[in-house]
Amino acid sequence: QLKLIRYVMRALECLVDNYMLTCEEESELLASLKFGKEDGWLSAFYSCLIRKHEKEYVVEAKFKDLERESCSISPSSGQMMKNNIDVLACKAEYYHQSGEYQKCFELTSVLLERDPFHLKCTLVHLAAAMELGHSNDLYLLSCNLVKDYPQKAISWFAVGCYYYCIKKYDQARRYFGKATGLDGTFPPAWFGTGIAYAAQEEGDQAMAAFRTAARLFPGCHLPTLYMGMQYVRMHNFKLAEQFFMQAKSICPSDPLIYNELGVVAYNMKEYQNAVQWFELTLTHTSSSPNEMWEPTMVNLGHTLRKLKQYKKAISYYEKALTFPTKTLSAFSGLAYTYQLMDDFEAAITYYHKALWLKPDDQFCTDMLTLALETSCQSTARRK
Protein backbone atom coordinates (compact mmCIF):
# COMPACT_ATOMS: atom_id res chain seq x y z
CA GLN A 1 0.00 0.00 0.00
CA LEU A 2 2.86 2.40 0.78
CA LYS A 3 4.29 1.72 -2.67
CA LEU A 4 0.91 2.48 -4.22
CA ILE A 5 0.57 5.73 -2.26
CA ARG A 6 4.03 6.86 -3.36
CA TYR A 7 3.25 6.00 -6.97
CA VAL A 8 -0.06 7.89 -6.96
CA MET A 9 1.55 10.96 -5.40
CA ARG A 10 4.36 10.99 -7.95
CA ALA A 11 1.84 10.57 -10.78
CA LEU A 12 -0.29 13.43 -9.43
CA GLU A 13 2.76 15.66 -9.05
CA CYS A 14 3.77 14.94 -12.66
CA LEU A 15 0.29 15.79 -13.93
CA VAL A 16 0.10 19.02 -11.90
CA ASP A 17 3.69 20.24 -12.39
CA ASN A 18 3.60 19.58 -16.15
CA TYR A 19 0.17 21.19 -16.58
CA MET A 20 -1.44 18.16 -18.17
CA LEU A 21 -4.89 18.86 -16.68
CA THR A 22 -7.14 21.91 -16.48
CA CYS A 23 -8.33 23.12 -13.07
CA GLU A 24 -11.64 21.31 -13.52
CA GLU A 25 -9.93 18.07 -14.59
CA GLU A 26 -7.63 18.21 -11.55
CA SER A 27 -10.63 18.52 -9.22
CA GLU A 28 -12.43 15.66 -10.99
CA LEU A 29 -9.35 13.45 -10.75
CA LEU A 30 -9.01 14.14 -7.04
CA ALA A 31 -12.69 13.39 -6.47
CA SER A 32 -12.34 10.07 -8.35
CA LEU A 33 -9.51 8.75 -6.14
CA LYS A 34 -10.68 6.21 -3.58
CA PHE A 35 -9.36 6.89 -0.09
CA GLY A 36 -9.96 4.82 3.00
CA LYS A 37 -11.12 6.37 6.26
CA GLU A 38 -7.58 6.26 7.60
CA ASP A 39 -6.28 8.09 4.48
CA GLY A 40 -8.12 11.37 5.02
CA TRP A 41 -4.79 13.16 5.51
CA LEU A 42 -3.64 11.99 2.07
CA SER A 43 -6.78 13.32 0.38
CA ALA A 44 -6.25 16.67 2.16
CA PHE A 45 -2.60 16.72 1.12
CA TYR A 46 -3.46 16.10 -2.55
CA SER A 47 -6.03 18.91 -2.46
CA CYS A 48 -3.21 21.25 -1.36
CA LEU A 49 -1.12 20.21 -4.38
CA ILE A 50 -3.60 21.24 -7.08
CA ARG A 51 -4.18 24.77 -8.43
CA LYS A 52 -4.29 27.60 -5.92
CA HIS A 53 -6.21 30.37 -7.75
CA GLU A 54 -8.86 30.32 -5.02
CA LYS A 55 -10.12 32.56 -2.24
CA GLU A 56 -7.82 32.87 0.76
CA TYR A 57 -10.34 31.27 3.13
CA VAL A 58 -10.71 28.25 0.79
CA VAL A 59 -6.96 27.66 0.61
CA GLU A 60 -6.49 28.18 4.35
CA ALA A 61 -9.32 25.69 4.95
CA LYS A 62 -7.43 23.10 2.85
CA PHE A 63 -4.32 23.45 5.01
CA LYS A 64 -6.41 23.31 8.20
CA ASP A 65 -8.12 20.14 6.95
CA LEU A 66 -4.73 18.59 6.34
CA GLU A 67 -3.57 19.49 9.85
CA ARG A 68 -6.80 18.17 11.41
CA GLU A 69 -6.70 14.89 9.46
CA SER A 70 -3.05 14.39 10.46
CA CYS A 71 -3.87 15.07 14.12
CA SER A 72 -6.53 12.35 13.96
CA ILE A 73 -3.68 9.86 13.45
CA SER A 74 -1.60 11.31 16.31
CA PRO A 75 -0.80 14.80 17.68
CA SER A 76 2.83 14.42 16.60
CA SER A 77 1.71 13.61 13.03
CA GLY A 78 -0.33 16.82 12.95
CA GLN A 79 2.66 18.88 14.08
CA MET A 80 4.94 17.15 11.57
CA MET A 81 2.50 17.80 8.71
CA LYS A 82 2.10 21.45 9.76
CA ASN A 83 5.89 21.91 9.46
CA ASN A 84 6.31 19.63 6.44
CA ILE A 85 8.40 21.39 3.79
CA ASP A 86 6.26 20.08 0.89
CA VAL A 87 3.13 21.46 2.53
CA LEU A 88 4.79 24.81 3.25
CA ALA A 89 6.09 24.96 -0.34
CA CYS A 90 2.46 24.60 -1.50
CA LYS A 91 1.52 27.48 0.80
CA ALA A 92 4.36 29.60 -0.64
CA GLU A 93 3.07 28.85 -4.14
CA TYR A 94 -0.37 30.08 -3.09
CA TYR A 95 1.15 33.32 -1.74
CA HIS A 96 2.88 33.86 -5.09
CA GLN A 97 -0.25 33.26 -7.12
CA SER A 98 -2.23 35.67 -4.95
CA GLY A 99 0.37 38.43 -5.38
CA GLU A 100 1.76 38.25 -1.82
CA TYR A 101 5.32 38.24 -3.13
CA GLN A 102 7.06 39.47 0.02
CA LYS A 103 5.28 36.91 2.17
CA CYS A 104 6.12 34.21 -0.37
CA PHE A 105 9.80 35.23 -0.50
CA GLU A 106 10.14 35.24 3.29
CA LEU A 107 8.59 31.77 3.58
CA THR A 108 10.69 30.23 0.79
CA SER A 109 13.85 31.79 2.28
CA VAL A 110 13.16 29.99 5.56
CA LEU A 111 12.36 26.72 3.78
CA LEU A 112 15.53 26.82 1.68
CA GLU A 113 17.59 27.29 4.84
CA ARG A 114 16.03 24.05 6.09
CA ASP A 115 16.44 22.21 2.78
CA PRO A 116 18.62 23.98 0.15
CA PHE A 117 17.94 21.14 -2.32
CA HIS A 118 14.14 21.39 -2.40
CA LEU A 119 13.73 22.22 -6.09
CA LYS A 120 10.00 23.01 -6.08
CA CYS A 121 10.52 25.51 -3.29
CA THR A 122 13.52 26.90 -5.20
CA LEU A 123 11.35 27.56 -8.26
CA VAL A 124 8.76 29.49 -6.21
CA HIS A 125 11.61 31.40 -4.51
CA LEU A 126 13.00 32.41 -7.93
CA ALA A 127 9.57 33.62 -9.09
CA ALA A 128 9.07 35.73 -5.94
CA ALA A 129 12.58 37.21 -6.15
CA MET A 130 11.90 38.14 -9.80
CA GLU A 131 8.68 39.96 -8.90
CA LEU A 132 10.40 41.83 -6.06
CA GLY A 133 13.43 42.72 -8.17
CA HIS A 134 15.91 41.03 -5.80
CA SER A 135 18.74 40.71 -8.34
CA ASN A 136 21.42 39.98 -5.72
CA ASP A 137 19.46 37.02 -4.34
CA LEU A 138 18.88 35.74 -7.88
CA TYR A 139 22.59 36.03 -8.67
CA LEU A 140 23.70 34.10 -5.57
CA LEU A 141 21.04 31.41 -5.96
CA SER A 142 21.74 30.92 -9.68
CA CYS A 143 25.49 30.56 -9.02
CA ASN A 144 24.82 27.90 -6.37
CA LEU A 145 22.38 26.03 -8.59
CA VAL A 146 24.74 25.98 -11.59
CA LYS A 147 27.52 24.70 -9.32
CA ASP A 148 25.37 21.98 -7.70
CA TYR A 149 23.04 21.04 -10.60
CA PRO A 150 24.70 21.93 -13.93
CA GLN A 151 22.55 19.39 -15.80
CA LYS A 152 19.18 20.61 -14.44
CA ALA A 153 17.01 23.07 -16.36
CA ILE A 154 16.14 25.02 -13.20
CA SER A 155 19.80 26.06 -12.74
CA TRP A 156 20.02 27.80 -16.12
CA PHE A 157 16.48 29.11 -15.75
CA ALA A 158 17.69 30.83 -12.55
CA VAL A 159 20.55 32.47 -14.50
CA GLY A 160 17.99 33.65 -17.08
CA CYS A 161 15.85 35.11 -14.27
CA TYR A 162 18.83 37.10 -12.99
CA TYR A 163 19.53 38.60 -16.41
CA TYR A 164 15.84 39.34 -16.97
CA CYS A 165 15.72 41.08 -13.58
CA ILE A 166 18.58 43.41 -14.56
CA LYS A 167 16.94 43.97 -17.98
CA LYS A 168 19.58 42.18 -20.06
CA TYR A 169 17.01 40.37 -22.16
CA ASP A 170 19.36 38.90 -24.78
CA GLN A 171 21.32 37.02 -22.11
CA ALA A 172 18.07 36.06 -20.37
CA ARG A 173 16.77 34.49 -23.59
CA ARG A 174 20.03 32.63 -24.10
CA TYR A 175 19.84 30.99 -20.67
CA PHE A 176 16.11 30.29 -20.88
CA GLY A 177 16.91 28.60 -24.18
CA LYS A 178 19.62 26.55 -22.51
CA ALA A 179 17.08 25.44 -19.90
CA THR A 180 14.60 24.29 -22.58
CA GLY A 181 17.47 22.50 -24.35
CA LEU A 182 18.21 20.50 -21.21
CA ASP A 183 14.54 19.82 -20.48
CA GLY A 184 11.98 20.61 -23.16
CA THR A 185 9.14 19.95 -20.70
CA PHE A 186 10.20 22.58 -18.14
CA PRO A 187 7.28 25.08 -18.29
CA PRO A 188 8.85 28.19 -16.67
CA ALA A 189 11.70 28.30 -19.22
CA TRP A 190 9.24 28.45 -22.14
CA PHE A 191 7.25 31.20 -20.42
CA GLY A 192 10.48 33.08 -19.67
CA THR A 193 11.62 32.83 -23.29
CA GLY A 194 8.35 34.30 -24.55
CA ILE A 195 8.29 37.08 -21.95
CA ALA A 196 11.93 38.02 -22.68
CA TYR A 197 11.13 38.30 -26.42
CA ALA A 198 8.01 40.36 -25.59
CA ALA A 199 10.11 42.72 -23.44
CA GLN A 200 12.14 43.55 -26.57
CA GLU A 201 9.02 44.02 -28.71
CA GLU A 202 9.85 40.88 -30.72
CA GLY A 203 6.27 39.73 -30.98
CA ASP A 204 6.66 36.93 -33.56
CA GLN A 205 9.32 35.10 -31.53
CA ALA A 206 7.35 35.64 -28.32
CA MET A 207 4.23 34.15 -29.92
CA ALA A 208 6.24 31.17 -31.19
CA ALA A 209 7.47 30.44 -27.64
CA PHE A 210 3.96 30.79 -26.20
CA ARG A 211 2.47 28.53 -28.90
CA THR A 212 5.04 25.86 -28.10
CA ALA A 213 4.20 26.16 -24.40
CA ALA A 214 0.45 25.92 -25.13
CA ARG A 215 1.05 22.72 -27.11
CA LEU A 216 3.32 21.14 -24.48
CA PHE A 217 1.24 22.11 -21.44
CA PRO A 218 -2.45 21.89 -22.41
CA GLY A 219 -3.65 22.35 -18.82
CA CYS A 220 -1.84 25.68 -18.37
CA HIS A 221 -3.74 28.88 -19.13
CA LEU A 222 -0.66 31.14 -19.08
CA PRO A 223 0.50 30.65 -22.72
CA THR A 224 -2.94 31.55 -24.11
CA LEU A 225 -3.16 34.46 -21.65
CA TYR A 226 0.25 35.76 -22.80
CA MET A 227 -0.73 35.34 -26.47
CA GLY A 228 -3.84 37.40 -25.79
CA MET A 229 -1.65 40.11 -24.24
CA GLN A 230 0.50 40.15 -27.38
CA TYR A 231 -2.60 40.67 -29.52
CA VAL A 232 -3.64 43.56 -27.25
CA ARG A 233 -0.23 45.13 -27.96
CA MET A 234 -0.97 44.73 -31.68
CA HIS A 235 -4.43 46.33 -31.14
CA ASN A 236 -6.09 43.16 -32.44
CA PHE A 237 -8.70 43.15 -29.70
CA LYS A 238 -11.12 40.60 -31.19
CA LEU A 239 -8.39 37.98 -31.45
CA ALA A 240 -7.08 38.90 -27.99
CA GLU A 241 -10.57 38.35 -26.57
CA GLN A 242 -10.70 34.84 -28.08
CA PHE A 243 -7.42 33.88 -26.41
CA PHE A 244 -8.51 35.32 -23.05
CA MET A 245 -11.77 33.36 -23.22
CA GLN A 246 -9.77 30.22 -23.99
CA ALA A 247 -7.54 30.91 -20.97
CA LYS A 248 -10.70 31.41 -18.88
CA SER A 249 -12.01 27.98 -19.95
CA ILE A 250 -8.77 26.38 -18.70
CA CYS A 251 -8.53 28.29 -15.41
CA PRO A 252 -11.71 30.25 -14.61
CA SER A 253 -10.47 31.37 -11.18
CA ASP A 254 -7.42 33.46 -12.23
CA PRO A 255 -8.38 37.15 -11.76
CA LEU A 256 -5.74 38.33 -14.25
CA ILE A 257 -7.82 36.87 -17.09
CA TYR A 258 -10.82 39.01 -16.11
CA ASN A 259 -8.62 42.10 -15.92
CA GLU A 260 -7.36 41.52 -19.47
CA LEU A 261 -10.91 40.96 -20.73
CA GLY A 262 -11.79 44.31 -19.13
CA VAL A 263 -8.87 45.97 -20.95
CA VAL A 264 -10.11 44.52 -24.26
CA ALA A 265 -13.70 45.69 -23.62
CA TYR A 266 -12.44 49.18 -22.68
CA ASN A 267 -10.41 49.47 -25.88
CA MET A 268 -13.42 48.33 -27.90
CA LYS A 269 -15.45 51.09 -26.17
CA GLU A 270 -17.73 48.50 -24.54
CA TYR A 271 -17.56 50.33 -21.21
CA GLN A 272 -20.41 48.55 -19.45
CA ASN A 273 -18.83 45.18 -20.20
CA ALA A 274 -15.46 46.52 -19.10
CA VAL A 275 -16.91 47.52 -15.71
CA GLN A 276 -18.31 44.01 -15.26
CA TRP A 277 -14.95 42.38 -16.11
CA PHE A 278 -12.97 44.67 -13.80
CA GLU A 279 -15.44 44.09 -10.96
CA LEU A 280 -15.15 40.33 -11.55
CA THR A 281 -11.35 40.71 -11.32
CA LEU A 282 -11.62 42.22 -7.85
CA THR A 283 -14.20 39.59 -6.88
CA HIS A 284 -11.82 36.77 -7.88
CA THR A 285 -8.79 38.11 -6.02
CA SER A 286 -7.81 35.60 -3.36
CA SER A 287 -7.88 38.00 -0.41
CA SER A 288 -8.38 41.73 0.16
CA PRO A 289 -6.89 43.47 -2.90
CA ASN A 290 -3.18 44.27 -2.67
CA GLU A 291 -1.02 46.56 -4.82
CA MET A 292 -0.88 43.90 -7.55
CA TRP A 293 -4.48 44.93 -8.38
CA GLU A 294 -3.89 48.69 -8.27
CA PRO A 295 -3.98 48.90 -12.12
CA THR A 296 -7.38 47.15 -12.11
CA MET A 297 -8.79 49.78 -9.74
CA VAL A 298 -7.38 52.57 -11.91
CA ASN A 299 -8.83 50.90 -15.03
CA LEU A 300 -12.19 50.62 -13.31
CA GLY A 301 -11.99 54.30 -12.39
CA HIS A 302 -11.26 55.24 -16.05
CA THR A 303 -14.18 53.11 -17.27
CA LEU A 304 -16.66 54.57 -14.77
CA ARG A 305 -15.50 58.06 -15.74
CA LYS A 306 -16.29 57.23 -19.38
CA LEU A 307 -19.80 56.24 -18.22
CA LYS A 308 -20.05 59.59 -16.35
CA GLN A 309 -20.32 57.79 -13.00
CA TYR A 310 -17.90 60.28 -11.48
CA LYS A 311 -18.39 59.59 -7.78
CA LYS A 312 -17.85 55.85 -8.20
CA ALA A 313 -14.82 56.56 -10.39
CA ILE A 314 -13.34 58.80 -7.68
CA SER A 315 -13.84 56.09 -5.05
CA TYR A 316 -11.78 53.61 -7.11
CA TYR A 317 -9.04 56.12 -7.84
CA GLU A 318 -8.81 56.87 -4.13
CA LYS A 319 -8.63 53.14 -3.31
CA ALA A 320 -5.80 52.79 -5.83
CA LEU A 321 -3.94 55.65 -4.13
CA THR A 322 -4.03 53.87 -0.76
CA PHE A 323 -1.29 51.53 -2.06
CA PRO A 324 2.40 52.52 -1.89
CA THR A 325 2.68 52.51 -5.72
CA LYS A 326 0.71 55.80 -6.19
CA THR A 327 0.88 55.89 -9.98
CA LEU A 328 0.67 58.80 -12.41
CA SER A 329 -2.42 57.23 -13.99
CA ALA A 330 -4.32 57.25 -10.69
CA PHE A 331 -3.49 60.90 -9.92
CA SER A 332 -4.20 62.13 -13.46
CA GLY A 333 -7.43 60.12 -13.69
CA LEU A 334 -8.62 61.53 -10.35
CA ALA A 335 -7.68 65.07 -11.38
CA TYR A 336 -9.48 64.79 -14.72
CA THR A 337 -12.62 63.39 -13.06
CA TYR A 338 -12.72 66.33 -10.62
CA GLN A 339 -12.24 68.69 -13.59
CA LEU A 340 -15.24 67.12 -15.37
CA MET A 341 -17.24 67.72 -12.17
CA ASP A 342 -16.12 71.40 -12.22
CA ASP A 343 -14.22 70.96 -8.97
CA PHE A 344 -11.18 72.83 -10.27
CA GLU A 345 -9.45 73.24 -6.93
CA ALA A 346 -9.27 69.46 -6.36
CA ALA A 347 -8.34 68.90 -10.04
CA ILE A 348 -5.43 71.38 -9.79
CA THR A 349 -4.18 69.72 -6.59
CA TYR A 350 -4.08 66.25 -8.17
CA TYR A 351 -2.57 67.47 -11.46
CA HIS A 352 0.29 68.93 -9.40
CA LYS A 353 0.73 65.57 -7.65
CA ALA A 354 0.76 63.79 -11.01
CA LEU A 355 3.32 66.21 -12.43
CA TRP A 356 5.51 65.71 -9.38
CA LEU A 357 5.79 62.06 -10.49
CA LYS A 358 6.35 62.95 -14.17
CA PRO A 359 7.02 66.67 -14.78
CA ASP A 360 6.98 66.37 -18.59
CA ASP A 361 3.60 64.60 -18.89
CA GLN A 362 1.85 66.43 -21.73
CA PHE A 363 -1.74 65.52 -20.83
CA CYS A 364 -1.42 66.69 -17.21
CA THR A 365 0.41 69.89 -18.26
CA ASP A 366 -2.26 70.82 -20.82
CA MET A 367 -5.20 69.93 -18.54
CA LEU A 368 -3.64 71.79 -15.58
CA THR A 369 -3.31 74.90 -17.74
CA LEU A 370 -6.96 74.56 -18.82
CA ALA A 371 -8.11 73.98 -15.22
CA LEU A 372 -6.22 77.07 -14.01
CA GLU A 373 -7.68 79.22 -16.81
CA THR A 374 -11.24 77.97 -16.22
CA SER A 375 -10.88 78.41 -12.45
CA CYS A 376 -9.67 82.03 -12.90
CA GLN A 377 -12.50 82.81 -15.32
CA SER A 378 -15.17 81.38 -12.98
CA THR A 379 -13.68 83.34 -10.03
CA ALA A 380 -13.72 86.56 -12.11
CA ARG A 381 -17.36 85.98 -13.08
CA ARG A 382 -18.39 85.50 -9.45
CA LYS A 383 -16.78 88.84 -8.57
From TrEMBL:
What domain of life is recorded for the organism? Eukaryota
Give the TPR repeat ranges: 153-186, 187-220, 294-327, 328-361
Instruction: Name a single GO cellular component.
Output: cytoplasm
InterPro entries associated with the record: TPR-like_helical_dom_sf (IPR011990), TPR_rpt (IPR019734)
Task: Give an example GO biological process.
Answer: anaphase-promoting complex-dependent catabolic process
Q: Does the keyword Translocase apply?
A: no
Its keywords, alphabetically, are: Cell cycle, Cell division, Mitosis, Repeat, TPR repeat, Ubl conjugation pathway
Gene3D superfamilies according to UniProt: Tetratricopeptide repeat domain
- The name of this protein is Uncharacterized protein
